[in-house]
Amino acid sequence: MAVFVALGAFLMTLFGGWTAQRVTDRRHLVLGLAGGLMLGVVGLDLLPEAVRAAGQEVFGVPQALLLFVGGFLVAHLVERLLAARQAAHGAGPGEESHGMGGAGDRAPQMGLTAAAAMVGHSVMDGVALGAAFQVSGGVGTAVALAVIAHDFADGFNTYTLTSLYGNDRRRAVIMLVADAVAPVVGAASTLLFILPEEALGSYLGFFGGALLYLAAAEILPEAHHEHPARSTLLCTVLGVGFVWLVVGFAG
Q1: 4 contacts 171 by C-beta, under 8 angstroms
Q2: Domain count for the chain
Q3: pLDDT, tens only, 194-244
């Protein structure tokens, strides 16, 4: 049953990526919406679930929150290392990067790394879906609703992240398809094992930190770089609101 439901996530992910492709002439709105969706997924979905599943304290702080901060710092470190590597391979003093203003300023590897993290998250979506159906049909149905609905955001963000860092359309589509297949693979894998709840919560906390870094430090600043419009801000708020509705209905 879980594998069949995961096919819905597969289709919704592709639809999210297709939507991101079709609105290239309103790129700042796409990025604003993507940032809002990512912020909403982290704050309203991933982090609460992570704390619930892995909330035991380590030196006074919940384990999930420590991993959340760790994920943020790791994403920052990876981005800085890639930027330094790019500068060492051709960016002279007069070519120094200023934010993410042009395609030539971006490290394509960062986009692929971020998209690969999205794929990994989608695999865990499928694992969570399969694990939920191991508990009961009711729990599985609730998780399925949340996974299928927010996989639209996953597909949207995977395509956007890959292309944002200067990767061509072919690479972006490849990562999108990989992200779409991932929940099916994850759901199928639960036929072979049972994932401990604490391990799932720890992963969600770490991934949430990395995702928040990408939203706050890369996606949203780029969205407002050339178009600091109210419409962009509205798209960000709408993205957060959409995830809130999904979480509310799923709960």
Answers
A1: no
A2: 1
A3: 767 788 788 888 888 988 988 888 778 877 776 667 888 999 999 899 888
118: left (phi over 0), alpha (psi -120 to 50) or beta: alpha
Q: Write the secondary structure of the chain as one string of H (helix), E (strand) and C (coil).
A: CHHHHHHHHHHHHHHHHHHHHHCHHHHHHHHHHHHHHHHHHHHHHHHHHHHHHCCCEECCEEHHHHHHHHHHHHHHHHHHHHHHHHHHCCCCHHHCCCCCCCHHHCCHHHHHHHHHHHHHHHHHHHHHHHHHHHHCHHHHHHHHHHHHHHHHHHHHHHHHHHHHCCCCHHHHHHHHHHHHHHHHHHHHHCCCCCCCHHHHHHHHHHHHHHHHHHHHHHHHHHHCCCCCCHHHHHHHHHHHHHHHHHHHHHC
Retrieve residue 191's tokens. 């036929």
89 token code pair:
């391979």
Q: Pull the structure tokens for residue 200.
A: 């799932």
Range of the domain at 95: 2-250
For 107, how many CA atoms within 13 A lie in the half-sphere containing its CB? 20
Q: Please report where in the chains the tokens 């860092």 appear, as a residue.
A: 165
What are the pLDDT digits (tens) for 34-60? 888 888 888 888 888 889 888 899 999
CA distance 72 to 210: 4
